Every structure is written in structure tokens, then in C-alpha cells.
Amino acid sequence: MKKSFPAASEGARRRATLSDVAQMAGVSNATVSRVLAGNYPVSVTTKNRVMRAVRQLDYVVNAQARALQAGASRTIAFVLHDITGPSFAEAAAGVEEEAARYGRLCVVCTTNGSRERQSKVIDLMRAQGAEAVILIGGTDNDEESHGRLVAYARSLAAAGSRLVLCGCPPPREPLPVTVIDYDNEAGAYAATAHLLSQGHRRILFVGKGEGYTTSEARFAGYLRALTSFGIEPDPELQVVVDFSRAASVRAMREVLARQVAFTAVFAASDMTAAGCMQVLREQGRKVPEDVSVVGYDDIPMTIDMTPRLTTVHVPYRELGRAAVRHVMELDPAARQDIDHVVLGTHLMVRESVAPPAVEPA
Amino acid sequence: MKKSFPAASEGARRRATLSDVAQMAGVSNATVSRVLAGNYPVSVTTKNRVMRAVRQLDYVVNAQARALQAGASRTIAFVLHDITGPSFAEAAAGVEEEAARYGRLCVVCTTNGSRERQSKVIDLMRAQGAEAVILIGGTDNDEESHGRLVAYARSLAAAGSRLVLCGCPPPREPLPVTVIDYDNEAGAYAATAHLLSQGHRRILFVGKGEGYTTSEARFAGYLRALTSFGIEPDPELQVVVDFSRAASVRAMREVLARQVAFTAVFAASDMTAAGCMQVLREQGRKVPEDVSVVGYDDIPMTIDMTPRLTTVHVPYRELGRAAVRHVMELDPAARQDIDHVVLGTHLMVRESVAPPAVEPA
DNA sequence: ATGAAAGCGCTAACAT
DNA sequence: ATGTTAGCGCTTTCAT
After folding, report:
1. Is Lyase among this UniProt entry's keywords (chains A, B) (predicted)?
2. Contact between the CB of B61 and strand D at under 7 Å
């Protein structure tokens, strides 16, 4: 005997309000509010009556009404290109985790790298009254992007919110912004130096994305390591591609076809490394016997690659956490300056690097 | 000369309201509202004056106020265990993508599998007035879990919202719920049948999570395939573990230590498969020459595994999209019944399966 | 074409 | 300890 349930058969019933509770409990609105907030003395008997009504009506506050009255919405916005990227997902987890700890809601928006969509999202978040808007990922390193960032920071600040930049360098001018960065350059230096100290001299850099901050910093670290080992950088060894897997596959095929000589690859991201390794395997070049490979990001799948990928660990989860924590703990009075944090990176040595093979005579 | 910017130096200034705009433009609130909504005739000159004020004040609506007035909040909630799992991330992307298409905001909450946290999150979402609450992932298959789901569905429905279950079987009783499922059992059947048709007879099933819907359905498919090939299931070949990588590594080591004989592994998830392959490799067993392996989920990293993993493709992104679409397009009047959709799964044949090696004489 | 005013659900000051 | 009331920012009748 299936008994149909009243709620559904009545369709979308009006949700219970605080007044409903008050009426049922025979008290005033204020009393109900006080019972729920628990920040004010209320007699035990009334409290019980109110709580019974709350349960009976299955009442929950209207967050909109509360936010309107409070003038703040207890939400954190997280804006990224694509939640599917493992490193972004990791950062998102950090943000969500920490937001939950502070009792904040976490709104996620993706932009697919579209500037237009980014602007729209920022406005949406201002409309929401988000306490912070966390932008993750490197940015384009041109005047126009910088200008947009400045505008975002200011309009957000003017509304009592705060822009947080994750994983990109701080703007050059004073701006009400929090920057949680990690040491991209040092990680790249360490990775390259590792290769050099194994004896590699011709190291292919794959992922020289021009005008993109993350990419530029990694490339800079590569260059610095080369220089400090007294090696002249060779433009032929610098492959310009974005961080996508597909792009690196294409690029790597092209490099191999051109017969460029190299004994090691420093891929600017693990995805890039995955693409390179696929092509190397296709062409019968063994990693690390024939070619050593180092990646960047230390995404979880690196340990399932064969050989396990040596890569630069980036603390993405902590990046997300720190972003939230900094905003939550920042004294709103002291908010005008740039608030800049740099997290460390370090090399994870695994199995994709070996000394270069001796030249066949 | 660094000019300091006014907004920041004044600290968190009050954000501009519609009244501010009205005042600056010298019109009434109603007029501003109408200009912004664009759903009402307004003279061109007034419109221009209003728009100028909007730009000058950098005004954006207060979403809370609007939602309060409208009685609806244009947000979709997405609740999952852990955003870091590649398949969940994929589904999340689908939800976000489709939500954006409908102009909805997407709130993400993780529960880490805690029931307590799940309840809290549901209430939070009721408070937010989310139009839909999408729960993704299998559920425990016990009375208590079922009871919770019933309660969620009803209280959400009572508030004009809707519960959407993604990737789990529909509840046994009529309930105001939308279920977007995929054919777990058929996928498992196909995977197992593939192995069987290659000649494998002793197939290890890793990931028999007891009382967990996803796991049970996959196991059922395995069993059915065995039966239809006239093979007696062997309990020794059924390994009980959750879907985590770490658990499968432990389990696989234990199985190998026990010297259980098998020529193929059907892992109930790709993560499980990754763990199994790691252990197999550690112990010098080649895939697929010595042991064939099939996974489940088809997460992106499967193509970077060596050998590339043969696995069952699950349309996670479409799952997320369908969840949103169904709620958005459902006539609220027709909302009482269970709304059930089943998406298909199919086998992705790659390189981790080969016929079993001939017994060494 | 525009304005005045009520009210969405809640909290907090101000009574009592 | 409890009630009354104003108002958060917006949309939307109802007037004009």
C-alpha cells in the first residue's frame, strides 16, 4: 500500500517562515529569532515551544533575508578556467575545505579562459556580495589583463569584498588585493638543475607560453639554471605551447620530426609531460634510458605514469586554503595594501630521470 | 608617482544601491529598476541618465534583495564527497557548465562521506533556497541511508526545491526526486564479457564494496557475465575494498601474497585499476602479457597509463549536465513523481587486455 | 512614462 | 524575558 505523501501532492508549497514558527509557538518573531540565534536570554519553556514548532514545520532560515539584513552573505567565490584540471581541482578542494571550516558557502564559476565570461562572473559575485573572489591560475601578462585586474580589485574592494589572486605574481602597483603565490621560478630552477647535475646538457623546454605569467616564471627558472651551469640557452630547445596535453603531443611530434638533438625534456606542466612521454613512447624512445623527463605540478596521476614522473610539487591544496584563510583573518581596516604570500615548491624525485646515455660511437 | 586610489583608502565603503542610482539620476527607484530589467517602456533620455549613473557608481544589483523579493534564488547546489576525484570533477564541470547556460549560480559542497555533514549541507541549501540539490555518487544501500534520502527529498520539495540523485538507483517508493543514473551493471557485464571472450576464466574482481550501490551494480554485472559464460563464481576471486587507490594497493598485495590464481583483473574503478597495476608491476607481472586488467569510469588519466587502460566509459559530464537540465525543464506542476533517466555506458578497448598466457608446462 | 508605496523574511534597537 | 517596530535593497502593483 503506497501512501502518497502530502508535501508532493500539494506541489511546491510555500516554505515555512519565521513568522509561521512564531505563530505556531504563540510568541513574537523576535523571540523565535533569539532562540535560533541563541545569543540572548530566553526562558526554557518558550525555547522548547519554539523548537518544537521549528521541528514541526521543518523550518530553516531564509539565507537571503538574513544576508540582506546583515549586509553580508558568507560566501566565497572561486573562479577558474576549468575544474577538470587536476591541479585546479586540488586548489578547489582546498578552498572548499577551508570555506566550510569558516562556515562559508563556496560558489564555483568557470570561465573557460574567456575574458568576457570572467568579467561577467566578477559582476555576478559582486551582486552576490561574496566576501572574497578567488581567481586561480596564471594570467596573461599584458596591459589589458592588468587593467582588468585593477578594475576587479577596486570594484570588489569598494563593495567590501576582496580579490584574491592565486598562483600569479602580485600587480606592480598598490591595490587592494591578496596574492597567494608559489615559487614557480625556484621550482623550475630545481628541476633543471637536477637534470643538469645528472649530466644533461641539451634540455628541451616544452611549454614556453609567451605572455603567460606561470609559463614565463617556469621558463625563467630554466634559463637561470642553464646560466648558472654555464650553458648557453639554445632557442631551438624552447618549444612554445600552452599547458594542454593535446598541444604538447602536437609540438613534440613536430620536434622529433625536426630531429632536434636533446637528452632530456623539462615539461612546463605534468600534462605537457604526459603528452611528451606519449610521443616519445610512440617513437620508440625509452624514458629515462634514452630521454629523461621532468614535469611540473605533481598532479596525482604522476605516480601512475610509467616511469613514475619526477616533477615539481606545487602545494595546490594549501594554495586554496591559504586564499580563504587570509581573507577571513585579514582585518578589514588593514585591507588596502597588497597582501602577498609565497609558498614553496620542491622537486619530487621519482623515476623519469637518468644520466644521459653515452653517445653511440 | 603612485597615486593612491580613493576606494581603498576609505576602507570598505558601502556598496551602491538602487536608491543611490535613482538619486543620482534624479528619478524614482521604480524607474531605475525598470531600466535595468528592460521589461517596461522607459523614455530614452531617462534611460540614458540612469545608465550613466549606473556606470558612474559601478552599480550591481544586490542578489540577496532580489532573491528575497522574487522568492527564488537561481542557484544550483552540487554535493559530493570529494571534488578531487576525476570522475566527480568531470560531473561537477557538467553541472557548472549547464547551470551557467541557464544563468544559474553553482554552489559546491563536499561532505567527505560524512552523513552528518551531508545533512547539514542539505539544510544549508534549503536555507539558500537552491532550486535543485544535486547529490552525486552511489549511496549506502541500507535502511538508514534510504530514510535520509526520503527526508531530504520531501523537505526540499516542500520548499519548492528538488533533490537530484546522480549515479545511484531510484528509491523504491514514490518520491519527489529526479534520478540521473547510468547503466553500471551493463558496463560491468561488457567489461567482464570482453575478458571472457579473450579466453580468461579466472577473473579477479577488485572492489566489491558491500552495501554500496555503485559497487554492487558493478559486481552484479560481473556475476551475470560469468554466469552467462557458464562459469561458477569463485569467492576467492572477489576482493572487498572501497574505490580508493590506497585500499586497492593493499588488497592487491594481499591477494598476490595469498598466491590466488587468476589471469585477469576487473577493477571496479580506474583508481582501483591503477593501484592493482602498480602492485602487479612491483611484483614483476606484466600487463597485459601476464595479467589483463580492465577498469571502470574512463577517467582522463587512463590514456597515460602504461599500457593504456581498457575501461568502461561513464558519461560523467553528461550526467552533471542532465541533472541540471532535467530540473530546469521540469514543469513544477508535474514534479511529484520520480523522474528517472538512465544513460548508457560502453567499453573503451585499449591495451591492457590480451588473451591469457598459455600455462607453462 | 513615471512615481509612491507595500512587502519579501529577517534581525536588532528600543520598548516594556 | 518578551514584544513592537524599523528597515536591509529590491520589484511590482497601483496611481497618476
Report:
1. no
2. yes
Closest-CA residue to A348 (of A296, A276, A304, A306): A296
Q: Which residue is nearest to nucleotide D13 (CA to C1')?
A: B30
Contact flag A12-B97 (C-beta cutoff 8 Å): no
pLDDT by residue for chain B (361 residues), tens only, comes to: 333 333 333 445 689 999 999 999 999 999 999 999 998 889 999 999 999 999 999 999 999 999 999 999 999 999 999 999 999 999 999 999 999 999 999 999 999 989 999 999 999 999 999 999 999 988 888 999 999 999 999 999 999 999 999 999 999 899 999 999 999 999 999 999 999 999 999 999 999 988 899 999 999 999 999 999 999 999 999 999 999 999 999 999 999 999 999 999 999 999 999 999 999 999 999 999 999 999 999 999 999 999 999 999 999 999 999 999 999 998 766 666 888 999 999 999 999 999 998 765 4
Structural domains in chain B, sorted by start: 8-61 (1.10.260.40), 73-183+316-344 (3.40.50.2300), 184-314 (3.40.50.2300)
Provide the 10 A C-beta neighbour count for residue A257.
Answer: 9
Question: Which bases of strand C sit closer than 7 A to a protein CB?
Answer: 1-13
pLDDT tens, A305-329? 999 999 999 999 999 999 999 999 9
Identify the residue among A69, A118, A128 best suited for mutation to test binding to B, counting B beta carbons within 10 A and taking the highest: A128
Element (H, E) at B196: helix B184-197
Q: Which residues 50-79 of A interface with strand D at a CB distance below 7 A?
A: 65, 68-69, 71
Under 8 Å between Cβ of A311 and A298 = yes
- Which letter, b or e, does each residue of A223-235 get, where b requires 16 or more Cβ atoms within 10 Å of its Cβ? bbbbeeeebeebe
Buried/exposed A118-153: b ≥16 CB within 10 Å, e otherwise: beebbebbbbbbbbbbbbbbbbbbeeebeebbbebb
| Residue nearest C6 (alpha carbon to C1') | B69
A48 touches strand D (CB under 7 A): no
CA–CA min distance B206, chain A (Å) = 18
Site from B13, B62, B64 to mutate, A interface, most A CB atoms within 10 angstroms: B64
Helix (H) or strand (E) segment spanning residue A156:
helix A143-158
State, as a whole number of angstroms, the distance between the CA of B43 and the C1' of D5.
Answer: 38
Neighbouring C-beta atoms of residue B318, cutoff 10 Å: 18
B11 interaction partners in chain A (CB closer than 8 Å)? 332-333, 335-336
- Distance, in Å, from the CA atom of A159 to the CA atom of A187, rounded to the nearest integer, reads 37
Q: How far is Cα of residue B253 from the mean position of the Cα atoms in its chain?
A: 30
What string of DSSP letters covers A184-201?
Answer: HHHHHHHHHHHHHHTT--
